[in-house]
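Incident log, structure service

09:12 report received: a user says their structure output differs between two submissions of the same chain.
09:20 pulled the input from the user's history:
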Amino acid sequence: MKKAIITVVGKDTVGIIAAICTYLSGQHINILDISQTIVDGWFNMMMVADLSESAQDFSTLSDALRAVGEEKGVIVHCQSEEIFQQMHRI
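09:34 re-ran on a clean worker, output below:
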């Protein structure tokens, strides 16, 4: 299974989760886990997604998610699970 870690951060507005999830669904990307919080008006979300069924290459996916985030006024980062794990190793 090919996984990605997607993080979303920014000022809370209506439709952030819907925009990200709609895009992922359209690319046949399944959300395996999701956590989101809002602290004093600031939105923070982390997702683990299965990219196995997507025809998009990782770079295109990452750029497209960044653009979806810009439309909603948030910052979106997409990293492969392998890189994410290496970055957060103790």
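09:41 both user submissions now match this output. Likely a transient worker issue. Closing.
09:42 reviewer note: The chain has three helices and four strands. The chain has a mean pLDDT of 92.
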